[in-house]
């Protein structure tokens, strides 16, 4: 059987994504984890910082009986200019999957093209597909199927926004996106679905929304623009008052880390409508489900 990669949500069919999310919930509820990855190993390469994604993969692989090897670009040959294709072919001889966080979707694609084992995108500058598995799992655990619901994305039209656009297409929900001018999503990604709509204000985005999502205003790589972005995004903060304009039963999610006083009001994470820690916990279960799907 041909190997499968997970570089974007579009690498899976809608049915496959639904079954991964269902399995994530099933794994969450199991006191004893099945040893479905016994004898299997995966390499984790993180070229950018991570807490949630890395811990979820390392712990998840161990819980399912597998073995994770973390390769730091600092102390491996990856940071010393070995061709990506060579690393991909070598690791394909030794382990069962490679999980990569990088600022280059192109590098991920290059790696995946040379590897004969599954390659997983643990976040790039274009997409964060693993986060969306956890977000959809969390919504469905708390509110039922996300299909047909309305989701508001408020903030930077960057990698999380792009993955929400893909998710709207795959899970069949309506996505309203509000970003400052000049910070919208990539037009090509936006045009790839009829399920996403650009609106002018955060208030318009959240009106009638069942789920409100935001992300940091300055993602990794944008730190030098922070001052300019603080001014540009000032009208796009998600607060308790903004959530009051959404549908009854609205949930609020943030992939974290969060900056209180910037993209969210200082106390928003303590609001009962916020489910960000449940969401963060589901990174563990949804990523285990993804590994099972790709490896077993
Ligand atoms: N949300 C997320 O990907 O968190 P980390 O950057 O800590 O992995």
Blueprint of the fold:
Blueprint: H1 14-28, E1 41-46, H2 52-63, E2 67-71, H3 84-94, E3 97-101, H4 105-114, E4 119-121, H5 129-143, E5 150-154, H6 159-171, E6 174-178, H7 187-190, E7 196-199, H8 202-206, E8 211-214, H9 226-232, H10 240-243, E9 251-254, H11 276-295
Helix pairs in contact: 1-5, 1-11, 2-11, 3-4, 5-11
Quote the beta fraction: 5-15%
Give the biggest beta sheet: 5 strands, parallel
CATH superfamily of the largest domain: Aspartate/ornithine carbamoyltransferase
Strand/helix succession = HEHEHEHEHEHEHEHEHHEH
Q: Strand order of the main beta sheet, please? A: 7-6-5-8-9
Number of domains: 2
Give the overall shape, derived from the CA principal axes.
globular
Ligand roster? phosphoric acid mono(formamide)ester
Quote the CATH topology of the largest domain: Rossmann fold
Number of strands: 9
Global structural class? alpha/beta
Question: Helix segment count?
Answer: 11
Q: Give the CATH architecture of the largest domain.
A: 3-Layer(aba) Sandwich
Residue runs with pLDDT of under 50 for 5 or more positions? none
Helix content: 25-40%
Rounded to the nearest angstrom, the distance between the terminal CA atoms is 11 Å
Radius of gyration: 19 Å
Task: Tell me the name of the CATH class of the largest domain.
Answer: Alpha Beta
Task: Explain the overall architecture.
The chain is of the alpha/beta class and 296 residues long. It has two domains: 132 residues, Aspartate/ornithine carbamoyltransferase (Rossmann fold); 149 residues, Rossmann fold, CATH 3.40.50.1370. The protein contains eleven helices and nine strands. A five-stranded parallel sheet has the order 7-6-5-8-9. Helix 1 packs across helix 5 and helix 3 crosses helix 4. The mean pLDDT is 97. Bound molecules: phosphoric acid mono(formamide)ester. The site of phosphoric acid mono(formamide)ester (CP) has 8 residues, from helix 2.
């Amino acid at each position: 059987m041909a190997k499968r990669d997970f570089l974007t949500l579009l690498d899976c069919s809608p049915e496959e994504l639904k079954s991964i999310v269902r399995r994530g919930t099933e794994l969450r509820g199991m006191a004893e984890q099945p040893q479905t990855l016994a004898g299997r190993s995966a390499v984790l390469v993180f070229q950018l910082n991570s807490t949630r994604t890395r811990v979820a993969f390392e712990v998840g692989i161990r819980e399912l009986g597998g073995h994770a090897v973390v390769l730091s670009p600092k102390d491996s040959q990856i940071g010393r200019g070995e061709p990506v294709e060579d690393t991909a072919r070598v690791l394909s001889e030794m382990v069962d999957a490679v999980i990569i966080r990088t600022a280059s979707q192109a590098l991920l694609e290059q790696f995946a093209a040379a590897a004969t084992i599954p390659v997983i995108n643990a976040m790039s500058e274009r997409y964060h597909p693993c986060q969306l598995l956890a977000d959809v799992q969390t919504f469905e655990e708390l509110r039922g199927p996300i299909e047909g619901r309305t989701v508001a994305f408020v903030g930077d039209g960057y990698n999380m926004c792009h993955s929400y656009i893909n998710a709207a297409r795959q899970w069949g929900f309506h996505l309203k996106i509000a970003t400052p001018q000049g910070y919208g999503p990539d037009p090509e990604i936006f045009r790839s679905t009829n399920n996403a709509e650009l609106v002018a204000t955060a208030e318009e985005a959240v009106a009638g929304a069942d789920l409100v999502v935001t992300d940091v205003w300055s993602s990794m790589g944008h730190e030098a623009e922070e001052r300019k972005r603080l001014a540009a995004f000032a009208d796009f903060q998600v607060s308790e008052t903004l959530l009051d304009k959404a549908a009854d039963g609205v949930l609020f999610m943030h992939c974290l880390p969060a900056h209180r006083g910037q993209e969210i009001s200082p106390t928003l994470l303590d609001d009962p409508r916020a489910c960000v820690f449940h969401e963060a916990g589901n990174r563990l279960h949804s990523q285990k489900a993804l590994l099972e799907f790709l490896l077993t």
